[in-house]
Amino acid sequence: MERTPIPVLTVQTAPYEDQRPTGGGGLRRPTGLFESQRNYLPNFVQSLLSSVDLRDRQGCTMVVGSDGRYFSKTAIEIVVQMAAANGIGRLVIGQNGILSTPAVSCIIRKIKAAGGIILTASHSRGGPGGEFGVKFEVANGGPAPDIVSDKIYQISKTLEEYAICPDLRVDLSRLGRQEFDLENKFKPFRVEIVDSVDIYLNLLRSIFDFNAIRNLLTGPNQIKIRIDAMNGVMGPYVRRILCDELGAPANSAINCIPLEDFGGQPPDPNLTYATALLEAMRGGEYGFGAAFDADGDRYMILGQNGFFVNASDSLAIIAANLSCIPYFCQMGVRGFGRSMPTSTALDK
Fold first, then answer.
1. pTM summary value
2. Taking the domains of the chain in order of start, what are their residue ranges?
3. Which residues are CB-neighbours of 321 under 8 A, at least 6 positions away?
4. pLDDT digits (tens, 9 = 90+) for 89-132
5. Which residues are catalytic?
6. How far apart, in whole angstroms, are the C-alpha atoms of residue 177 and residue 160?
7. Helix, strand, or coil here: 52?
8. How far is 252 from 340, CA to CA, in rounded Å?
9. Contacts of 329 (CB under 8 A, 6+ apart)
10. Topology of the domain covering 9-195
11. Which of 106, 226, 235, 264 lies at a CB distance of 3.0 to 4.6 Å from 289, suitable for a disulfide?
């Protein structure tokens, strides 16, 4: 039986003046704004897609993921429907919409995608009264540079219409390929639902000495660890990588079920909000502790007795021990990238 092609619609809209991306092509606003303001999300998604030149957009592959916060599944459906209508040929999406920001970057580079869309508001609160956001990553797996963010903003200020396939429905829970015939398209639009952890785990295996880490966590002189995923996207990664793959006991990992409201707390890995981890570490039972933010691109590290290790010092520790990391032994080091909250530890 022949399938009826899915209609591609053009919807009239009016521009918003407040859709300037900040922080690498990202738009972060109260969730209620996305839910209540007519076409607020479609407007920004259209501006984002239109920032990719038409010849690069037609038939290309993009990656889509979210941190699982409230409104994510609704937003993913809109992104899928609009990507199809705008000529994207294939979307790769994490199962149930879940993909950490580092995993999106990894997949973009692995499959040579044109870019990726991540639905997250980072460490901000989730739930109906929280915040929601959209981030754009470009073909190198990094956040959109200022020139791309500026282009998105300029398009958003004059936007009069967007394209969408409102009848297109994707099953985010089913691994594998789903194909859709669209009106006026020569090839079917494809969506591939992938395991949220697999590709990223394979990358980590090629970088770090898993045998040495496994021995550290399970051997005669094992170190006890405590990892808090803060009910964000990192829960499945922590369970699969640290517990299943590297042998840490299951009770080493806490708050590993992604929740739409992150359990009512901001998923912010700092001494103010990661209090459960801090209290556990202060007891002296654990030798290493870590917490992650909602989308997994920021962390906090604690040593025994709750000793706080800032990001600058952890980078310096890695730099001082490069001989323990197989990837750097093979590939060498071209430089160290440090961000705003820096120190002189790396220089030393």
1. 0.93
2. 9-195, 200-347
3. none
4. 999 999 999 999 999 999 999 999 999 999 999 999 999 999 99
5. 122
6. 33
7. coil
8. 31
9. 322, 323
10. Alpha-D-Glucose-1,6-Bisphosphate; Chain A, domain 3 (3.40.120)
11. 226
